[in-house]
């Protein structure tokens, strides 16, 4: 049975913590593992999904996102099994967006065909760069041509909603090599519907973090970073993409529904090791210990925080402002039964006068970050915490 | 009490020559404590002291020693600090003693502070006998050191006990020497009471505990005592002596004895160290000699990092002053740092120690301003002011001339480093006085140096230029006329009072440039560009710019990140809250401290 759009929505995230090899910048929970571990993990995952489905009374899902790690590293039948389990345990929106993350070098025709058959309708490729030298520096396992091959098979398998992840601020990267990466990807035929382009974040507990501590990481400086960022939006708009979030760009109608949910307060369930979920105004997190997860996959997540009205308002602002369209006064009033300006008016006026926020009236009354506000988003967001 | 069975003595030494360790062994050997009860260093009961390996606060301990002659002697061992900053504390302690053990390291020999301390002891008419410590070191040269003691200090040393305090070698010999070579106290127990205050301690139960050496007369519970300098008068609640780390009450203290008095004294200001305690009803005619008010030589502003903690800081300073008579403080206000205190210290080490104690024992976060010496300002109207805070410098048109304190510095160093040490002294505006070779290979260099040249990083520079071998001692010589200017720092065109300081006109440019460079690294980027300028008399002599912030954004924030990213924003926000607002610029606390440590790129 399918539900009509507009009813209470929820999303589902499924975490696959496996990859061929850790990239040098990656701080997600993922690691290489043998087939038997993967098999067992999928079994545990299905048990957890079943349990969530039961608990949430077969809630209806507007999107599913299979992320990682590298989910495409799993044999296709594992993904089929997971998808069957999801469909058995939840109701699905008619046009639910179902994404799987794939890394070049881990996919083939058979996988893509079977993904489509089991209902997956969106592919997210982790490419990062069109420059093989840069890929090597990131510790990626593939070349640009590996990606091109994978991309073509995905297209020929019938996928029309494809995202490509790109990364700026790569060690040794220049403004022109970054521009070349963007243009190369935009000129793929057909061009991807969606592009995520984000600056490298150096996390402490990664090889890059270590290198930075030792002063051995040669990443572009703040000024170059901004030059790249501003150029990204300009070049992508030439090819018909609009920026709809700080680091996300899409052709009209192809904005990622799942991620938009994160920024607009849609509840999401999550299955898998270390997976985070949010529902009933609470943020939860699963164990990050593989053994305990496998032993008791349905143990349920830990409560991380319970959001009161004040926190909900704060999240409404700091997550909502990540979106280029910003936050809606009407939506705020509808959710919290109080005028936005009654709560945050002073700050909003200050930032508008400083040129960091802007407001629009039509079609609805919204507050959003200016171009400069996007560069200094943290500075603005801090005021709403 | 039979005075002939009392020995009041102290141990003097250069830092690290093993004074506290010897004290421990004496206490252990005299059987007051079992070996199991012994902490590593019984006399140093503050954590801080143990960590730094130095003794900050004089303390006394009474032990009982059964000598070779079969009699039991009372030993009052008074521990004294070894650092030049604490010379006055040393002198108060010495005045309470009749003799001193001089500890000299068998490898290092006589050092600058060995000399300073032994002269101080001789000034107080103490009988001094030397012991050679660390004789078990492979590099020990006891005979050379004995000769050196005789040559340099001029006291007999051939029969000095050869010991290892660390390994308990030769301690019995030291104990016998205490009995035989240190005189018993003199004094008349029936004369009017006179007792020297050599230390004091604040205890939350007993109030102020006054440490005294009774010179004449007797004091007991109920005696109405009077402090001769302050005039305070109280009835004695308890008298007693010092067990290791505790107070042991007794019936009375009479002439020759060392002990403590409590008299429900609430503030230490009534019991100044060096003052004489007498009987209010039967006073002695004259106070004991040697009392002086301690004069701080280094001042700096001390502010709570969180301005809401002002009262806590005030309370902590009050309490610390109870235990440290040489600490001076008075309230002051800074535009940049808010409400705080101008504190006076005996020297830089003293400043360091107080700051650390405030932070550690009282759990305070502090911001301190650059240390300053006391300048004398001769004004055109004929008046003279002592300037302890650079911000209070009068307008140049009102100043006739200025004077700065000069010290006599003695540096002892092996001959390989003589050249670089002299170069350093020259750079620091030193005036060469003399140099003599104490013995083959080691020289004693004498310089006159402006105090303000040694309060920043002189010690560090000295150590690095001599690979740690130079030892340094100084005392105040007096004031000299000097060309001094006030260096002001402007951040975003606003003067930051807490960063102003007085400097010799020749060094102004150099120091101004270094400060601007340092501040540029310390001040975070803001939404706008921030000029940092160093000015003398309104003229800009150096400038740096903190560029406007261009990026402050988290590229990614997905479902799994939200809690973590929120925490990151909170942390950023918290960091800003802890900064000091000067005009529209937020300055981190660390910026105020960083300018204290301007690297001397040799």
Helix and strand arrangement:
The complex is a heterodimer of chains A (385) and B (602).
Chain A: E1 2-3, E2 10-16, H1 35-55, E3 60-68, H2 76-89, E4 91-102, H3 109-117, E5 122-128, H4 132-138, H5 144-156, E6 162-168, H6 175-186, E7 194-199, H7 207-213, H8 222-238, E8 242-245, E9 248-250, H9 257-263, E10 268-271, E11 276-279, E12 282-285, H10 290-295, E13 302-306, H11 309-320, E14 327-328, H12 329-336, H13 340-353, E15 357-360, E16 366-369, H14 371-375, H15 377-382
Parallel strand pairs in A: 1-4, 2-3, 2-10, 3-4, 4-5, 5-6, 6-7
Antiparallel strand pairs in A: 7-9, 8-9, 11-12, 12-13, 14-16, 15-16
Helix pairs in contact in A: 1-2, 2-3, 6-8
Chain B: E1 6-13, H1 19-29, H2 47-52, E2 59-66, E3 72-79, H3 87-95, E4 99-105, H4 112-123, E5 127-133, H5 142-153, H6 171-181, E6 194-203, E7 207-216, E8 218-220, E9 224-227, E10 233-235, E11 238-243, E12 246-250, E13 252-254, E14 258-262, E15 276-279, E16 298-304, H7 310-323, E17 328-334, E18 338-345, H8 348-361, E19 366-368, E20 372-373, E21 375-379, E22 384-387, E23 399-414, H9 418-427, E24 431-439, E25 442-450, H10 451-454, H11 458-465, E26 471-482, E27 484-491, E28 494-495, E29 501-504, H12 508-522, E30 530-536, E31 539-546, H13 562-577, E32 580-582, E33 585-587, H14 589-594
Parallel strand pairs in B: 1-3, 1-4, 4-5
Antiparallel strand pairs in B: 2-3, 6-7, 6-15, 7-14, 8-13, 9-10, 9-15, 11-12, 11-14, 16-18, 16-19, 16-20, 17-18, 21-22, 21-23, 23-25, 23-26, 24-25, 27-28, 27-29, 27-30, 30-31, 32-33
Helix pairs in contact in B: 1-6
Kindly summarize this structure in a few lines.
The complex is a heterodimer of chains A (385) and B (602). Chain A is of the alpha/beta class and 385 residues long.
Q: Can you put this structure into words, describing what you see?
A:
The complex is a heterodimer of chains A (385) and B (602). Chain A has helices spanning 35-55, 76-89, 109-117, 132-138, 144-156, 175-186, 207-213, 222-238, 257-263, 290-295, 309-320, 329-336, 340-353, 371-375, 377-382, and strands spanning 2-3, 10-16, 60-68, 91-102, 122-128, 162-168, 194-199, 242-245, 248-250, 268-271, 276-279, 282-285, 302-306, 327-328, 357-360, 366-369. Chain A is an alpha/beta fold and 385 residues long. Chain A folds into 2 domains: 9-263, TIM Barrel (Alpha-Beta Barrel), CATH 3.20.20.70; 309-385, Winged helix-like DNA-binding domain superfamily/Winged helix DNA-binding domain (Arc Repressor Mutant, subunit A). In chain A, the strands form 3 sheets. In chain A, strands 1, 2, 3, 4, 5, 6, 7, 8, 9 and 10 form a 10-stranded mixed β-sheet that branches. Helix content of chain B is 25%, strand content 35%. An 8-stranded antiparallel β-sheet of chain B has the order 10-9-15-6-7-14-11-12. In chain B, strands 21, 22, 23, 24, 25 and 26 form a 6-stranded antiparallel β-sheet that branches. In chain B, strands 2-3-1-4-5 form a 5-stranded mixed β-sheet, with helices on both faces. In chain B, helix 1 (19-29) packs across helix 6. The longest helix of chain B is centred in the C-terminal third of the chain and has 16 residues, at 562-577. The N and C termini of chain B lie far apart (61 Å). Mean pLDDT of chain B is 86; it is low at 33-38 and 48-58. The chains are: A alpha/beta (385), B alpha+beta (602). Chains A and B meet through helix 8, helix 9, strand 11, helix 11 and helix 15 of A and helix 13 of B.
